Structure formats: C-alpha cells, structure tokens
C-alpha cells in the first residue's frame, strides 16, 4: 500500500501543480486581455486627440493664410509707389523736375512729399506748377494739393522753393499695372521675347 499511496500523492501533487499552473496561466491571460483592451482604448483616445490637433492646426493655418492674403490685398507695395513717383517726377529731358526730399504715406494711399525745386531754373514757381501738373495728369495719383511754398536761396545764392505736397496714390492703378505687366526675356536672336 505504500507504493500506491506514494503514487497517489505524486499524482495528487501533479494534479495540484497542473491546476495551479493552469489557473495562473488563465489569470495572466485575463490580465493581458485587460491590458490589451486598455491599450486599445488608449490608442483610440490618442488617435482622437491627434485628429483633433490636426483639425485645429489646419484651421489655424487656414486662418493665418486668410489673414496673410487679406493683408497682402490691403497693403501697399511701397517700392512700386516710389517707382511710380520717380517716373512722374522725371521730366521730358530725363532730369527730375524737382528734388523730393522726403516721402511719407499711409495704408490707404495717402502720400505727403517734401520737395525742393532745382536751383538752375529760370522761374522756380513755374517748376512748382509743372510738378503739380505732372501728378495731376498721372492716372496713378489724385487729389494733389500744395498747402504752402517757401522761398529761399541755395549755397550758390540761386533762388529755390521748398514745398510740401499731399496726394493720394490710387491702389487700382497699382493692381492694373501688376496684373497687366508682361515679362520680357532675351530671345536667341538678341531681340526681346514677350
């Protein structure tokens, strides 16, 4: 009986060990399933947060682009404004009708110029009149006004006039010019291709 009881105890011990191992494996599998479900839940939450962040970022980028486009459409291209002023100031001989001492302007196209006549002219008052007329005749400027003219002498003793002038730059003239300009590039035969 001793042989049977020893075998019985070994069998019982084996069944207990297998039962414990099976229970332990089941518990671990349940924990892994819970951990996996928790990870899946975290993954879904994180994906939702990423999607929300991407939507917010896209919305902010779109808002920034719209603001930039609005600023560009409302702003003045001051380099072009000054080029247009310089173009008007050039007389038929290629010399400036008068010297512009300073420029100032605002976003709505209002300009103020401080100007001095050339000292080598016969009658500087006619130069002032011609200067005003060149801006009046230009389709790019309007509302030309000279509130005051000051008389003085330059270093050589020649009579010069200084005056301030206010006028408006027409933004429509800028838009027409920039959209209708053609780009010129040299062609193979030396001419200009358009």
Q: Please give the largest β-sheet.
A: 4 strands, antiparallel
Proportion of residues in extended strands: 15-25%
How many beta strands in the DSSP annotation? 6
Please state the CA-atom Rg, rounded to the nearest Å: 43 Å
Low-confidence stretches: 176-194
Assign a percent range to the helix content: 55-70%
Number of domains: 2
Helices, by number, come to 4
Mean pLDDT: 81
Strand order of the largest sheet: 1-2-4-3
Order of helices and strands: HHEEHEEHEE
The CATH topology of the largest domain corresponds to Alpha-Beta Plaits
Secondary structural class:
alpha+beta
Q: What is the 3D shape?
A: rod-shaped
Specify the CATH architecture of the largest domain: 2-Layer Sandwich
Describe this structure in words.
The protein has helices spanning 2-74, 78-89, 124-137, 171-180; strands at 98-105, 110-117, 141-153, 159-169, 185-186, 192-193. It is an alpha+beta fold. The strands form two sheets. It has a four-stranded antiparallel beta sheet. A hairpin with a 4-residue loop joins strand 1 and strand 2 (110-117). The chain is rod-shaped and about 145 Å long. The chain starts with a helix and ends with a strand.
Descriptive key words:
single chain; 194 residues; alpha+beta; Alpha-Beta Plaits; 2 domains; four-stranded antiparallel beta sheet; two-stranded antiparallel ribbon; disordered C terminus
Concise structural overview:
This protein is an alpha+beta fold and 194 residues long.
List the topology elements.
Elements: H1 2-74, H2 78-89, E1 98-105, E2 110-117, H3 124-137, E3 141-153, E4 159-169, H4 171-180, E5 185-186, E6 192-193
Antiparallel strand pairs: 1-2, 2-4, 3-4, 5-6
């Amino acid at each position: 009986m001793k042989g049977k009881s020893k075998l019985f105890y070994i069998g019982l011990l084996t069944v207990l060990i297998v039962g414990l191992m099976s229970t332990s494996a089941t518990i671990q599998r349940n924990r892994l399933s819970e951990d996996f479900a928790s990870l899946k839940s975290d993954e879904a939450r994180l994906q939702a947060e990423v999607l929300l962040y991407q939507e917010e970022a896209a919305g902010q980028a779109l808002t920034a682009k719209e603001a930039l486009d609005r600023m560009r459409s409302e702003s003045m291209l001051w380099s072009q404004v000054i080029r247009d002023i310089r173009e008007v100031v050039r007389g038929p001989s290629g010399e400036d009708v008068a010297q512009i001492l300073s420029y100032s302007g605002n976003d709505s196209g209002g300009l103020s110029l401080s100007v001095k006549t050339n000292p080598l002219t016969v009658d500087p008052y006619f130069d002032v009149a011609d200067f005003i007329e060149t801006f009046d005749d230009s389709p790019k400027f309007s509302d030309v006004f000279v509130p005051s003219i000051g008389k003085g002498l330059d270093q050589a003793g020649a009579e010069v006039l200084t005056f301030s002038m206010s006028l408006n730059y027409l933004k429509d003239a800028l838009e027409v010019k920039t959209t209708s300009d053609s780009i010129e590039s040299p062609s193979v035969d030396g001419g200009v291709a358009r």
